[in-house]
Amino acid sequence: MTEPSLHPSAQKSRHTVSRQWILHQYPQRSHSISGAFKLIERPLHPSTPSTPQGTCIPANKILLRTLWFSNDPAQRTRINNASPDRLCTDLMREGDVMSATAIGEVIESSHPEYRKGDLVRGAFGWSEYVLVDTDSSRDWQLVKIPPKTNPADFMAMGGTALTAYFGLLSVGAATSADKTIVVSAAAAAIGSIVTQIAKNVVGIKRVVGIAGSEAQCEVIKERCGADIALNYKSPNFRREFEEATPEYVDIYFDVTGGEALELSLRRIARNGRVVACGAIFRYDSGGEEMAVSAKAWTNIIFMKARVEGFTVSEFKDRFPEAREQVFRWVRQGKIHPLKTVWRAKFEELPQGMVKLLKGEHVGKLVTEIITE
């Protein structure tokens, strides 16, 4: 094997191995993941030349220590033991490093554009240290974090904000002519951004947000601008849903499935749209209870409604445009990043997935690694 060439300023590194969380076996239930992952230790790069003093950083590479991890429902779908052709992303295989977007701090670099102390976001997975080939920056999805930027805020306005942007404006084709929009999981990462764009940018008359606690309902109204917030755990949820949608539902933004989907289809307006980008209810339960009733399904026909699923990767060529617009709205005060930061040790990282699927957080759930 040919050894990689070294940059003239290549440094000797203490870091020759990294701890990683791998998929050990496919879980049966989303909350029963204790045996799904395994913590192992691997060489940072098998072909990196070693010396008694350490490892040389090859040319155009950077060594990162990951400090913030994004927690996303899509991670759960990737560890289902399902047919690969039925998934929107590549299926994880047993032994793979668990996929995740993360922000790492550059601790060593042989690339002039990256300096020690820089923060970089990328598809690093659940690895404590990552040796990144900057020549493959597109594969790593590298983005340098602007100076003085809160990493958790940057996470909150990342992929989930783009999902909200394209789902509402492109797939849902939302306009100010729409009278009512219902947003599921409106206190979570995607839903909180959808709610704010719908109210503060598009100007939809009635924005109804659904959440799982009274505290989250207060967040939806006070911080996201929703006109009405409904707690789906309320014993009167069905009646309250009907009362909240007197002019029916022009757009239902769905990231959960379950009862909220059923009720929205029953109340769908003529030419209404259902934007389907997630099914957290299914991830949590196994999905057998998700079937909609014949009455709800018939409304799609009679009301000439449109149900469309999507993944944000479909719009990757338009990401720069969307990021620019989203951050413009942030600067204008029209939308605000909502996040919950969970501080944990690297050894506790998988518990972030449990917290995510329990749905007790507000906005984007970000894991911040405690360093000693």
From TrEMBL:
It comes from the Eukaryota. InterPro entries: ADH-like_C, ADH_N_2, ER, GroES-like_sf, MDR_fam, NAD(P)-bd_dom_sf. It comes from Tuber magnatum (white Piedmont truffle). The keyword Oxidoreductase applies. This is NAD(P)-binding protein. Residues 62-367 form the Enoyl reductase (ER) domain. CDD domains: PGDH (cd05288). Keywords: Oxidoreductase.
